Structure formats: structure tokens, C-alpha cells
């Protein structure tokens, strides 16, 4: 980053959502004559970088109450204070800057960063969604929502998480994040549409790569079962053919399957391996990596992240040692057999409560997200009919036990097709969802977990 910035001869380098671990990077910037301001929210290491200023709610001694603020939120607050200070010092032009106009980006960045959606994060996302639903969003976001088939007027945090964020991230995962930035900065609808269509194509390519990697990763997990050793408490998976831009998504999918911490790694540059991890409740992933580094000095080149997600880099020759060390730390904290998946439900719904009106009411009570989950219900259903839609989505017609009206339902990323023909009854954990199509609204159940009975 410093080498790239040097070409512009800047006096000041400001980071956003990174830098808290960049001790050497800040030193290099100082040597190049730059002052450095770090804005970040990631957990700091033992040594803070020698920046001229650090704004991070998680550094020791910071009394800012909302520690889970996303990186984009940190920068939004920095700009808010900067505007106030400039106005106080007589720069009247600063008072004309309307930071509320950027709340659409703050909302997208907060949701995409997977931070807990509570306290100030919830306020920022709510404000951003309200502006977007009213049509006050930049052309790039409008174009991304259009190619994803989402309605701006009924926009939710789930649309940001599953329609906007994956398309923006696809550029950085497969090519260059600049494409996503250019889309967000597009000045008009025509240029925004071109960028959005390009990002949509990249996202389709990303899905294909992800599916191939996921199939290989699941085969590797099955092999661990078959070789008699069983799954370790912390799982590490690596393949020479894997794409480093998709390892985080694959780690998340495999974690959902095995219900234990997972690190997926792929070849990087200069003999290094890059990894991305996803964790389970009760296992702080960034702290676990710190424990690995403490037990094995020099094993990791660098690492960072949060409780539930983290990234790391290490030399290729250290891969096997890291895999064993990570499994050992996980075993110490979780035991030999980590607890399986526990689904917490808000209970069963009565027939009269399973309604479109309640689905709309829950939608309007959002935004829902990390740390502030939408209500989840459960119940037994008879499976009347099913079909495949899209690549791997299961569309179902169900009859709730005790009800007399069939109900539509959908389960995304279904992976049990072989056994489906034998299933007659299912125990589902689901959310009430509003299915909007051709101007009509219908109730459907959005299935999150299922347990089949033949």
C-alpha cells in the first residue's frame, strides 16, 4: 500500500478498516515522508503501529462504548467529527457537506462486514435503508439491486447481505476490488449499469469456483472420517488448486456442515499460503490464532480478525505444523468432540399466526442481522411436493401438522438431493418471509434448518 501511495507523493495516509496490525507498514510510510492516521475496528495485537493517530474502538484505553462498530462506521464518525471541527475553525464550506448522503454506503459496509447488528450499527443501517427505500441511493447501488432482481422500495438488510455485498466482493475475490469501487462511484445510471453487469458476471463465476472448491473440501472432510482418525476439533483444509479469493466463503460453508472451527487455505505468492477461518460459538478465532503464534513463534507470518472470522498468512512449509497446532488449540478449548449444532427456536406458531401480515410486520421490525437475528420458529410438516429451482435451491409445498392449508417454502443451498425422494415428514426451523413477484406478495417459509424423517 505504501509503495502504491508513494506515486502520489501524499503528506497524509489514512487507512479504513485496516492498519491496526501494520507496524512495518506504518514505519515504511514514515520513512517515505507520510504521516499516518489509522481507522480500524479489528482487534489490536500486543504492539500498536507507530501511527500519528489511531481511531479504533478496540484499542486499550478507548472509552467509545460500541466496540463492534464496523470499519465503515468508524470512518463515518471520523468524518462527522472532522466536519464539526472544521466548521468551528471557520471553514464554512465543511458545513455544506451532508454526511447523511453517504448513509447508503455505511449501511452496505456495516452489513457486509458481518458485525453484530445492534446498538449504533443498527441505527446506522436503519437510517441507510430508510434513505434507500425513499430512492436516495447512488446509481451504483441501484444498478446492483436491479441486476439482482431486488425491489428498492422494500429493501432489507438481507438484500444488502445476499444481493449487494456478494457482487461487490466478487471483484476483490477474483480480479480487482477497483471494479466494485468504480460501480459505487458511478456518476450516472448508464455507467453504473455497465459496472453492475460486470460485477454480476464475476459473481456468477465466483459461485462456480466456490461450488467446485466446496465439493473438494467436503470430499476432504469425508476422507478424514474414513481414515479412522475422525475430524479434529479444529479443521484445516488446503488444496494447491484452490482460489484464495473464495476460501472465506468455503470455510463458512464447511463450518456449517461440521459445526467446529474451520480454516481453509490456498496458495498465495512467494511461497506463502493464505488462510481464512470461520468459527463457532465459544471459540474466539482471532485469540486462538494468537495462541497458536505464542506456542509456535515464527509459524505465522501474520494474522488478524475477530471472534468468528479471521485471516492468516504462513510459509508453505509450515502448513502441516499449523494444522496440528490449530487442532490442538481447538481441542484445549472445545474438547475432543465439540458440541454439535444447536438451533434455538422461538417456538411453534399457531395456524392463525402463520400469516402474510405477520411476515410483513417482522420485516418492518428490522433490520435483522448478526447479533440481532430475526425470529426463528419450528414445527413438523408433511412434505407434499418439492422441486429444484436455480442451482441448488429446494422449493417445497408443505402442510403443517394441525393446519388445513398448504404452505410454500424454500431452502437455499440444499445438498441432500439423493435422499429427498424418501422424505415424507420434516422438522423445520424457519422464518416468515414475504415473497414478492410480479407485484404480488405471498407468504413463504424461509427454511434455515431441516431434519428429515422418512
**CATH domain class name of the largest domain:** Alpha Beta
CATH topology assignment of the largest domain:
Diaminopimelate Epimerase, Chain A, domain 1
Work out the strand percent: 15-25%
Q: Assembly state here? A: single chain
Round the mean pLDDT to the nearest integer and report it. Answer: 92
The main sheet comes to: 5 strands, mixed
Give the spatial strand order of the biggest sheet.
4-5-6-8-7
Instruction: Categorize the overall geometry.
Output: globular
Radius of gyration: 24 Å
Uncertain spans: none
Number of strands: 13
What is the domain total for the residues? 4
Description:
By secondary structure, this protein is α/β, with parallel strands linked by helices. It has four domains: 1-39 and 48-54, no CATH class; 65-137, no CATH class; 231-334, Diaminopimelate Epimerase, Chain A, domain 1; 351-453, OB fold (Dihydrolipoamide Acetyltransferase, E2P). It contains 13 helices and 13 strands. The chain has helices at residues 2-6, 23-31, 71-88, 103-112, 120-133, 139-147, 157-174, 178-184, 189-226, 247-258, 285-295, 319-334, 356-364; strands spanning 12-16, 35-39, 53-55, 235-238, 262-267, 272-278, 302-305, 309-315, 377-389, 393-400, 407-411, 425-437, 440-453. The chain has a five-stranded mixed sheet with strand order 4-5-6-8-7, sandwiched between helices. Helix 10 (247-258) links the parallel strand 4 and strand 5 (262-267). The longest helix has 38 residues, at 189-226.
